[in-house]
Amino acid sequence: MSSVRPGFARDDWNTRYAQKELVWTAEPNRLFATETASLEPGRALDLACGEGRNAVWLAEQGWHVTGVDFSDVALAKAAELAASRGVHVDWVVADVLEYEPEPRAFDLVAMLYLQLPREELLHAVRSAVGAVAPGGTLLVLAHDTTNLTAGYGGPKDASVLYTAADLVPELLELEVERAEAVGRSVPLEDGEAIALDAFVRAHRLR
User: Fold this and answer.
1) E strand or H helix that includes residue 142
2) H-type helices in 19-169, by residue range?
């Protein structure tokens, strides 16, 4: 959840996370929960995990989870959430651009709403791809470029937005199952709005 987009570095995220109990809900992203519900639990890696809501949910489903984020404040809150739910997650304070995950070691690798400039993003994606174990799954979800003009909310800086198609050339090691824009309902006081996200699901055959 913590991006390192220009002008918003670790100290800025620490300040933001310290301002309220939870910046985001404690419940998992709905699409993420749906896409992982049918997977056999194993080792999972949640890159840029923020306050840990998705990592904790995975642990509740029986996964052995490693959550990585560069905000120590966010991970302290993530640890509290895990403790309150009675589960364990290995929390790692590290910048995803510098973190080197164990190669081909994770049955699930998740990268949700990591919004970075193109070269940094592709570096993070390559690292994520390399961590996927044989038979494992990669899930990427982010604010889509088209959300700027056709969706609701999200970053307004086009340089940190991307589409699923932008990532496909980096996924040659994997079999791509889905790479598309998906709509996400955002409740409002007077109804709802639709945000547009980039979604990628891929797996490693061997």
Assistant:
1) strand 132-143
2) 30-36, 53-60, 72-85, 118-131, 147-150, 164-167
Question: Is position 58 within any domain?
Answer: yes
Q: In the chain, count of helices (H) and strands (E)?
A: 7, 7
Q: Answer whether residue 121 is part of any domain.
A: yes
Structural domains of the chain, count = 1
Contact 125, 111 (CB under 8 A): yes
- pLDDT per residue rounded down to tens, the chain (206 residues): 444 444 446 545 444 544 555 545 668 999 999 999 999 999 999 999 999 999 999 999 999 999 999 999 999 999 999 999 999 999 999 999 999 999 999 999 999 999 999 999 999 999 999 999 999 999 999 999 999 999 999 999 999 999 999 999 999 999 999 999 999 999 898 999 999 999 999 999 98
Return the CATH number at 87. Answer: 3.40.50.150
Domain that holds residue 51: 10-17+29-203
